[in-house]
Amino acid sequence: MRRLPLTALAAVVGCLGLCASGVHGRVEKQVPGDPYTVGYSARGLVIDGEPRVLTAGAIHYPRSTPDMWDSLMKKAKRGGLNTIDTYVFWNMHERVKHTYDFATDRANLPLFLETARNNGLFVVLRIGPYVCAEWNYGGFPQWLRHEKDVV
Q1: Tens digit of each residue's pLDDT (9 = 90 or more) over 63-112
Q2: Which long-range CB contacts under 8 A does 18-25 form with residues at least 24 apart?
Q3: Which of the four, 10, 64, 85, 129, has the lowest number of CB atoms within 10 Å?
Q4: What is the pTM (predicted TM-score) of this model?
């Protein structure tokens, strides 16, 4: 096993100290929000002024029941994830044209997002319209195929 020279070790420790102290470059753009302020620097994503790496796993909320969401998210967090990735399924939320459902059973997206927040997880919300997840019609509602002038 090779040993690092003391000067190289000191340089690595110094770099780790700078990184840990928040020296990550000038923040280029920030958007204040609730509960986080999100931005970016030349080096990457910045959340609440701190550089962050998102380690994500997908949980598609319509594929499980609301009673399962908390348990699934706790397992994801224990597994080292800090972010949940999910699509927004158009055909789940607008089964009938101009009739929207974000509150019942598996369509309860606000409850899913609140569950993630309560578990200390970020969410990457993948707003379609297309869903690439072996989902009927790619997430497009069935009524859409009967619409005129839709390519």
Answers
A1: 999 999 999 999 999 999 999 999 999 999 999 999 999 999 999 999 99
A2: 19/51, 22/49, 22/50, 22/51, 24/51
A3: 10
A4: 0.78
